[in-house]
């Protein structure tokens, strides 16, 4: 048995600077910091959150190499050889930004680690069952590993029960026989633990990640279907989801279908089919949700009209649209119900605003 970690460092570089005289051997910068210049949402006459107007900064994308590093638990906490947790890699729901609340510090002791030879990459994500987070917190970080040219002997992820997860791993070129699923009793020490940085603070997309994910479309053998056979205008219906639903959905859907919009549920299709659909779309109307990750495959000047509860400062899809030159329209719906978390609130959509913005979209 081992004692629990003696503390933590917020950032990998903070630990590296204090522990290694040869820090350049264990840190590989892949992408420089980058600024994202964003345009005001089109047609938003009220003043949106300042998050929609400011210049966003994407931090460096990098690879960390931790000799005799350890990984612990089902979400993959990262432990250094001198027994410290690296907070920026050790997310845990619901306190993924409060490392002092991490379950590893609630243990009385830790079991001895299983030691493995080779380079073990940890690409866990605390929200791995969510399509958006799987793509940006797992698949995008695989790109950093590939750019580093470090030979990886094993990949540790923390869940692969959905079809889309397996499809995306294959699309990114990861051999499934090299994948290990983290679990609650995991405690492993590797010759070298390789951990790629997150593309942004959790939930925000970096330009390098967007460009890489968009490029994966080229690996898909697109069918010979006539482009005109795909719907040009779609509405992504969330009425079957547990939260962030449109409370007057039937009214909204009836109006949109009258204008020729097709109702779509992307999760019912394979990744290849979703890429084909979104590559041919001209206009999307949708409540904020993970299906909009497929904006990655839209052509420039595609139009998105997003529904979002008023007061929610989520700019995830706004940033993707700005990087890819997709036109971003916004309706801030009136929150309904009694959800304690605004990100999960249902919303009522003002039909007059909807009709006016649809006219503006053309």
Automatic annotation (TrEMBL):
Glycosyltransferase 61 catalytic domain sequence ranges: 131-304
Pfam families: Glyco_transf_61 (PF04577)
Alphabetized GO MF terms: glycosyltransferase activity
Keywords linked to the UniProt accession: Glycoprotein, Glycosyltransferase, Transferase
InterPro entries assigned: Glyco_transf_61_cat (IPR049625), Glycosyltransferase_61 (IPR007657)
Keyword Aminoacyl-tRNA synthetase: no
Name under which the protein is recorded: Capsular polysaccharide biosynthesis protein
Organism of this sequence: Melghirimyces profundicolus
Native organism taxonomy: Bacteria, Bacillati, Bacillota, Bacilli, Bacillales
